[in-house]
Fold:
Amino acid sequence: MNAQQLLNEILPILHTVKEDKEKLQKILDFLLEEIYEEPEEMEIPEKYRELVHNVAENIDCGLVCFINPKTLEVEEIPKGMLDGFTGFSLNSEIDDEEDDEQKFLHEDWESSISVEPRESHESFKIMEKFVDEVNDKNLKNKLVNALNNRRPFANFKNIVESSDYRKEWFAFKQKQLEILVWEELEYELEKYENKKHGK
Structure:
């Protein structure tokens, strides 16, 4: 049997005991003892640590980062500028006679990898993961309520940034963003290397 067929066999069995707390606890205990393995912590190679750290900070500020896979040079551009929003200029000394179209460094590179600010659902998952880490039950309840009501991002931010967990939140968010950036970057760098070597 393949994995999907096995899963199709297991799920109906679980469904039959869904109301039996004792049996569910036995299943959970068995899975934790015999099956589950803690995921390995992702290790970012030394060569890329500073790059990944900086890109994570920049995308958190709403910048799109273009990375030259050959030189690891980075160009950061406000997302609104790429979306055609006027009023941005990278060069304040542009002559009126010059073409209005902005020229970006990455356009002259042989190849580039773009890393964009995270989608709202990804940011929401990071906030949910952080709530799981909070030991203060009062704060945890406030954060859960913030996430489940209107304006979850603003409310979560207001609560966590005025709490004793402020520093932990920023460190946690940075680490989660670095993981996401490295996963994306590692995949794109591998693709670039394969293409370069004709694979």
Notes: The CA atoms of residues 130 and 168 lie 9 Å apart. Strands lie at 63-67, 74-78, 113-115.
